[in-house]
Amino acid sequence: MGTPAQTLAQILEQQARRHDSRVFLRNKSDQRWHDHSWSSVADRAARLRAGLSRMGIKRGDRVALLCDNSPEWVIVDMAALGLGAIVVPLYTTGGAEETRHVLTDSGARLLALDSAQRLCKVRELGLLPALETIMMTHQTPESQVGAGPRIVSLDQASAYEPMPATAGDRDELATFIYTSGTTGPPKGVMLSHGNIIANSESNLAALNLNSEDMTLSFLPVAHSFERTAGYYTVMLAGGAIAYAEGLGQIAANLLEVGPTVVLTVPRLLEAVYSRVMRTVESSSAGRQRTFRAAVAIGTEAADYRHRGRPVPFYLAAAMALFRHLVFSKIRAIFGTRLRYLISGGAPLSTEINRLLAAAEIPIVEGYGLTEASPVVSCNLHGRTRIGTVGRPLQNIELRTAPDGELLVRGPNVMKGYYHRDSETRDAIDAEGWLHTGDIAQIDAEGYIRIIDRKKDLIVLSGGKNVSAANLESRLASDPFIAQACVVGDRRKHLAAILVPNFETLGARPPDNVRIDQRRPAELVNDRALRDFFRSRIREFNRPLSDVERIVDFVLTEQPFSQDNGELTPTMKIRRRTVQEHYHAQIEALYRTKSE
User: Fold this and answer.
1) For residue 583, what are the CA distances in angstroms to 519, 572, 575, 578?
2) Fewer CB within 10 A of the end CB, N or C, for the chain?
């Protein structure tokens, strides 16, 4: 046995020696999939490492990436980490202000870009004092004109003899990951090699991944969930990563690649759920009865599986029938080899979780945060409790504070926020407990139920606290509602901004509502459509307490998105931004209610 790898770059080198010509990375271009072996990826990283060293990049320097998921992302990452540099990933969907903030705050000396369009956007940011070099990963750069960072290509920077990863230790910083956050400018979370390796080892132990596993990567690798669980953990397992062509091609790529592991966020599963339910509701009465019976049987059988108990014969026999009649079509969406469908980044609604479990799709819901590298807990096969986020991974301690806040301690907890000592002290107490900002309950068996965000509670003017995220998740499970944002802080009652699901409306137009070819902007002002949504909100409110009820709403044709700043990269709502964008409409709602 050799010396255990101390850094992520050393792990790649060890795995390359072990797996050599086996496939590590796959990407699709020119209508075909291209394979990249372990040894070729390690070699390209080593050659680029030599080039970066010649450019003057050294231990502690920041190297930023503004690129889509690709083999080149891994090559730049591993080249920089092998020099002891600190990698700073940026979201490709980030706005100009966020991009400028991350590059300036981190002091990045080199920025890797993958397109001419992104080069133009960076040039529009103005002066970035620390940035010396821009490296184009997918094309030969244009001639440099005027002042500004020098521009080189990845090929030019890699035209050297391979340079092995330098010695390092687990305590050295590996990355600054800027939290997308729902309020305020992003903060740079400082994670060491040891933080990430510890979390990857815990993921590996929980999921028992191996060299036969393959994941389809489509969540932004700039996010800690995809980066640790979908990249470094797979690297540690000796598995393979295939990169989706884009969000619009995920369905086709799932069938082409046949991944065993898929990381996703609830928003994408909500789209799958809506599509399934639309199909069911437009089918005959007999098929609808069959579907409901299948889900009832599947849910009962899933309860046995979740508790690690054998499924009784009568359920197994019924499942054999429904597996063929109903569930095979849902399972086919994810390919034929799926072992784990891992949902993270935000709470997954119980309705969606139960349907997927009933269909025998191996859904695993987990919980984490960037400051914990990021995975804290997950539901495992045979040890699942729907409605919880499972139990903590190995080497992770949990407890709740007197106010219910979930606290985390372990080798995965960050070093702190970059040059924000006061905020670091607020986040990590003297005993090393990370204060997550989430309100949670931990039962006698160790299962964690996330109740709400500590700072995302809506406090009504009467003093009552209401969970906005919980209400939004329930609203979005309505097939006619695509997205919802609940408002009402310091007000007498709650209201909501609703984005209708226009696809469902077109397929199942409500009575007295003329859809035809009318545009969404016209539909949201239609009185009959508003009456229809008012009736649905009335039904939504029926089981709720008075303080939880949605009293009024705004319909908008404009979806919440990352482009308009209303969603984080993991599809969480930035409530403050939404409220700013709809300030006039919200004020009008409350005026009409004579508050």
Assistant:
1) 24, 20, 12, 8
2) N
